[in-house]
């Protein structure tokens, strides 16, 4: 299976690139690519290589600019393109009305989490060993945030995506460390993290 992972950082997408993005997805559509969300890819396409031979998984991280995300979403909704995507929102960019609109269309809206970075900054921690000692507290914060967002959203979230922060670079510790806990994943109903090896393998 030929699979591309398309990840867009909205901090850096300038207005002049909207036309280029539309051209890209239109060319992919004309070339026969299935353009889908991470949730749909993970749940409905067998990982043994069966199914469509050409797939683009669209992942959009909403780091700061919801307005830009809405413009991208408008492009993806255009007739004949048939694009579905995953949109991941930080706590600071949550827009529940927009998230529900994304889901109603058939794309995915979920959580762009960063609890390790947030915890480190809040407690002025620079030593990764100290974070690991307090990982139970960090994971409790994740669960609290995840369930609170889900409750306010009114829909189940099954995939999440780690956000990268300067604090993570300083610690040399990714937020994905939080999800290295099967019990936490099961408790929250998370079936896939965007950096999981089965996803990255494609």
Explain what this protein looks like in three dimensions:
The chain has 202 residues and is of the alpha/beta class. It contains ten helices and seven strands. Strands 1, 2, 3, 4, 5, 6 and 7 form a seven-stranded parallel sheet that branches. Helix 1 runs parallel beside helix 3. The termini are close together.
Give the averaged pLDDT, no decimals.
88
| Main sheet properties | 7 strands, parallel
* Overall form: elongated
Termini gap: 8 Å
Question: What class do helices, strands and sheet pairing give?
Answer: alpha/beta
Number of helices: 10
Number of strands: 7
Descriptive key words:
single chain, 10 helices
Short description:
The chain is built from ten helices and seven strands.
Topology of this protein?
Blueprint: E1 2-9, H1 18-30, E2 34-36, H2 38-44, E3 54-62, H3 66-76, E4 86-89, H4 96-105, E5 108-113, H5 115-122, H6 128-133, H7 135-153, E6 159-162, H8 166-171, H9 182-188, E7 192-193, H10 197-200
Parallel strand pairs: 1-3, 2-3, 3-4, 4-5, 5-6, 6-7
């Amino acid at each position: 299976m030929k699979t591309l992972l398309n990840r867009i950082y909205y901090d850096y997408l300038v207005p002049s690139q909207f036309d280029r993005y539309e051209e890209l997805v239109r060319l992919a559509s004309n070339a026969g690519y299935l353009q889908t969300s991470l949730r749909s890819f993970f749940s409905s396409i067998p990982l043994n290589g069966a199914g469509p031979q050409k797939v683009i998984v669209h992942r959009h991280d909403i780091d700061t600019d919801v307005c830009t995300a809405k413009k991208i979403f408008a492009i993806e909704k255009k007739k004949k393109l048939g694009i579905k995507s995953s949109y991941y929102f930080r706590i600071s960019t949550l827009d529940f009305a927009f998230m529900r609109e994304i889901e109603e269309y058939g794309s995915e809206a979920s959580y762009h989490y960063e609890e390790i970075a947030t915890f480190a900054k809040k407690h002025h921690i620079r030593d990764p060993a100290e974070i690991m000692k307090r990982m139970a507290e960090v994971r409790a914060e994740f669960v609290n945030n995840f369930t609170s967002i889900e409750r306010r959203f009114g829909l189940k979230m099954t995939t999440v995506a780690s956000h990268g922060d300067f604090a993570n670079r300083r610690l040399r510790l990714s937020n994905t460390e939080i999800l290295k806990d099967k019990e936490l994943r099961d408790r929250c109903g998370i079936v896939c993290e965007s950096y999981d090896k089965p996803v990255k393998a494609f």
